[in-house]
Design brief:
By secondary structure, this protein is α/β, with parallel strands linked by helices. The protein has 12 helices and 10 strands.
């Protein structure tokens, strides 16, 4: 059995359901050596897509369009729903997801081409609809900053959700966008417990750093809020009041939440991680997650999949609502403006 891999969320590579063959490090007679003795190194792959804007019609999402400059994510959040999408690239949803990263360096250029089309209609586009646009590789590649430059040039509204404080690098662009109600930033906050964060989402920013980043954004009048997500009963559900208070005190103006769901290969990845990190309560946490989703750990039903159902879901809902009323004045996430969009790059005439 492999030793615990520090700095990684997933501890295993699970089979890819789309592949009929796979490379295995297990020998039927047990003669093979452990080939994953240490955390795998980051491998970068480059893609040149024809388009970068993805659309959806999900009633669970507040946005209908998104851009993901990176596929796969170094942050390594063990619960991440985006892990399953890595299988479409021929990789595993496990360790491959956080060590084999696909980069789209031409994303800003392709976005500009889209804005220049006569058929384009301005709409809010979310950065990080799937994987984090400010993950560590962004420091080198600066694709997200390039995208924000295009959003600013054409004055198209953009939403950002991230677990990384690298977003503060782009305060200059964000401040200009905010002056015309063209941007909002959401930090995903799972826990204030640093020991839990280090193993649950190992390469994300600490809660303390996120709170400081919220202060910086709020000081520049940039709309900023949090998603308390995912809420995992038995691990972090009791932190809801303290997370919302801390975020509000830092200057966050709005907040939302989702509960954990373990679709596809994530179930095996999370269960393996849970048994290795919390063997004393692994069974309890697993059963509590099942209770959120009608006896299953996975759930694809719109509405219920992100809030859960049953008594534990109701407790989480009430705890969030009470805490939200106490610490937040805003009723929800801000609606951004499409009024200032520069059709084909031409300034609006008055």
């Amino acid at each position: 059995m492999n030793e615990y891999l520090k700095g990684k969320g997933a501890q295993i590579n699970v089979p890819n359901k789309f592949l009929t063959q796979e490379l295995s490090t297990e020998d039927a007679d047990g003669f093979d050596e452990d080939l994953i003795a240490e955390s795998p190194k980051i491998n970068v792959f480059y893609e040149t897509p024809k388009k970068v804007i993805s659309t959806n019609t999900s009633p669970d999402l507040a946005f209908g369009a998104s851009i993901n400059p990176y596929q796969g994510c170094e942050h390594g959040c063990v619960y991440c729903y985006a892990r399953n999408s890595h299988e479409y690239w021929g990789f595993s949803a496990g360790l491959d997801f956080e060590s084999k990263i696909i980069v789209k360096p031409d994303a800003p250029k392709i976005l500009e081409q889209e804005f220049l089309k006569t058929t384009y209609q301005p709409k809010t586009i979310m950065l990080s609809g799937n994987t984090d646009c400010y993950q560590p590789l962004e420091r080198k590649h600066k694709i997200t900053r390039g995208l924000l430059t295009i959003f600013h040039k054409y004055q198209n509204p953009v939403g950002i959700i991230t677990k990384n404080t690298l977003v503060t690098r782009d305060l200059d662009l964000l401040e200009e966008l905010a002056k015309m109600n063209l941007v909002s930033v959401v930090f995903s906050m799972t826990t204030l417990n640093e020991d839990l964060r280090r193993i649950l989402e190992p390469r994300t920013a600490s809660a303390l750093k996120k709170l400081k980043a919220i202060e910086q954004l709020a000081a520049k009048n940039i709309p900023v809020g949090i998603m308390n997500a995912p809420i995992i009963p038995g691990l972090n559900h009791h932190e809801i009041p303290s997370i919302l208070k801390a975020a509000s005190d830092a200057g966050a103006q709005f907040a939302g939440y989702t509960v954990v769901r373990l679709n596809g290969q994530i179930a095996e990845i999370f269960k393996d991680w849970l048994e290795k990190t919390f063997p004393d309560r692994a069974k309890k946490v697993w059963n509590l997650i099942r209770e959120l989703h009608g006896g299953n750990v996975n759930d694809s039903r719109f509405g219920r999949r992100i809030k859960g159902e049953g008594k534990h879901a109701e407790v989480i809902k009430k705890l969030f609502e009470v805490s939200h009323r106490k610490h937040f004045k805003s009723g929800g996430f801000p609606k951004l403006s499409t009024y200032y969009f520069r059709k084909r790059g031409i300034y609006r005439l008055f």
